[in-house]
Amino acid sequence: MTLGLQLKDYRLTTAEILYFLPDHPGLLQSYIWQDFDLAPRFPALRRFLEFWQRELEGPLHSIRIATGGPIRPASVRHASHMLHLH
Questions:
Q1: Rounded Cα–Cα distance for residues 11 and 35 (Å)
Q2: pLDDT tens digits, 34-43
Q3: Fold classification of 2-67 (topology level)
Q4: What is the pTM assigned to this prediction?
Q5: How far is residue 76's CA from residue 74's CA, in Å, rounded to a whole number?
């Protein structure tokens, strides 16, 4: 499943969501969300944030997003030295 998504240009996306605590509006709490998503529109993250705003208490403060690069062939390096151990 993961490789199939990556071949469709999905990338592992991590979002750090800062939100205000409902009982203590002066305090911030951090929540980490991670899933495969399509950059740069991030439809899965947008659906999650819409759910958050519709169903959960705790207003959002900020969101930081990090995403990996697209899938690519593995890099191959040639060995420069060969050692033998007994």
A1: 8
A2: 999 999 999 9
A3: Ubiquitin-like (UB roll) (3.10.20)
A4: 0.78
A5: 6
